[in-house]
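Give me structure tokens for this 159-residue protein.
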Amino acid sequence: MPNVKTAQRRPLKFNSLDDIVADAQAVTSGPHRVSGNWTAAQNIWHIAQTLEMSNHGFNFTVPLPMKLAGRLLKLLGRHTKPFTPGIKPPAKVAHAFAPPADISLPLALAKLHDEVDYAKAHGMKHPSPLFGPLSHDAWIQTHCRHAELHHSFIHPTPS
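Here you go.
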């Protein structure tokens, strides 16, 4: 397994949910490779899954020490700063966001489209188990930083 802390990554900066979708489509529309531990489909599905939970609610909580640390990070504005690769969440949290091993790229892209469309139509109103309540705009920035991390491991390759 590659070490995601030292793996090659693409520099990315997303400003909107549409930027996330556009990059997912562009980088996977032709030959591509990954430098992390997940396939392109798994990375994209994972981003869509986090959007789904902020759209419809989270089915887990985080331990109190993690929640307190998350609230401090939110106060410091870290939820809208670039995410660091290689963070190991508690098992139940990791399980809630773990992509299926056999997820197909078309299904992952469709899920991403659906969740972005829902977020744009209805707003993201559910509190983060880690950061607590977030405005819709703060959710967008948090998802942009998260997607920058995961998409950075997907690289287009010459055909």
